[in-house]
Amino acid sequence: MSTHVLACIDASPYAQAVSDYAIWAAKKLTAPVTMLHVLDKAQHTQTPDLSGSLGLGSQELLLQQLAELDEKHSKLALQQGRNILAAAAARAGQAGISAVAQRLRHGPLLDALTELEPDSRLLVLGKRGGDSAQAHGQMGLHVERVIRSVQKPILLTQQAYIEPKRIMLAFDGSATAIKSAQMLAASPLLRGLPLHLVMAGQDSDAAQQQIVAAAQLLRDNGFETKTAIVAGEPEQVLHQYQQEHVVDLMVMGAYGHSRIRQFIVGSTTTAMICKATCSLLILR
């Protein structure tokens, strides 16, 4: 049975927020936490091939020194990973989480997540990692691939932890959005919090019927729900609504269209994530 809250911890400024959101989620779900740190050697500085530019006398010695330097770098990265995990686990323990596992993996992040996903209930991930932490307004290098590949809900965090007090479900009446409302209604993660159910587009009888039905489902499952239909492009008006109503966490479905359609016209999901100034819960 999928039980764990899986938190991806790295050396970026997002690590503390990821830990704190994982702790918050674990308490809401009464679930254990797994802290994961991945060492991907492909991202590290590799020993360069200088064989064509070195003199015969110095070539062998310098390449040996470079290889030793690379080995030292790998050992330091390994120790740093252990320290990061230990600090995150200690933080969870201090917050009252007794069941905390630490996982250190080598290789691509997606491979590690594929291995651990079956035992996971929720994945917590920073919007950007160490390599792109300051690339504001963008997603991290691996985030889009993770969202497209992982089938479990993903909590995508900003750099600062803000305990969710008001939430918002981005709703468009699609099958993906309806499923998101159903998942939200069935989960204890956000139950009891004031919820804004917001649709971007033209107000119409059909839109009203869709949003009223979704709102009733959520109210029947304990959500104090406010509805709104706002005219405009989703990636603009939904973020404007979120900021005006001081929403702490936005909930949305992921990639409702085919991959070919996304390639041709772009993805609302990607645009929403890039523009988001609050944390996001992404449902599949």
What is this structure, in a nutshell?
This protein has two domains: 4-43 and 77-157, Rossmann fold; 167-283, HUPs (Rossmann fold).
Task: Describe this protein's structure.
The longest helix has 39 residues, at 56-94. The protein has a ten-stranded mixed beta sheet, sandwiched between helices. It is elongated and about 80 Å long. It has nine helices and ten strands. The chain folds into two domains: 4-43 and 77-157, HUPs (Rossmann fold, 3-Layer(aba) Sandwich), CATH 3.40.50.620; 167-283, HUPs (Rossmann fold, 3-Layer(aba) Sandwich). It has helices at residues 15-29, 56-94, 109-116, 143-149, 175-186, 205-220, 234-244, 259-265, 268-275; strands at 4-8, 33-39, 100-106, 120-126, 154-157, 167-171, 195-200, 225-230, 249-253, 279-283. The two termini are 18 Å apart. It is an alpha/beta fold and 284 residues long.
Q: How many β-strand runs?
A: 10
Instruction: Tell me the number of helical segments per DSSP (H or I, 4 or more residues long).
Output: 9
Spatially, the strands of the biggest sheet line up as: 3-2-1-4-5-10-9-6-7-8
According to CATH, the homologous superfamily of the largest domain is HUPs
Tell me the structural class.
alpha/beta
* Estimated helix fraction: 40-55%
Please report the distance between the alpha carbons of the first and last residues: 18 Å
* Number of self-contained structural domains: 2
Radius of gyration of CA atoms, rounded to a whole number = 22 Å
The CATH architecture designation of the largest domain is 3-Layer(aba) Sandwich
Instruction: Please tell me the overall pLDDT.
Output: 84
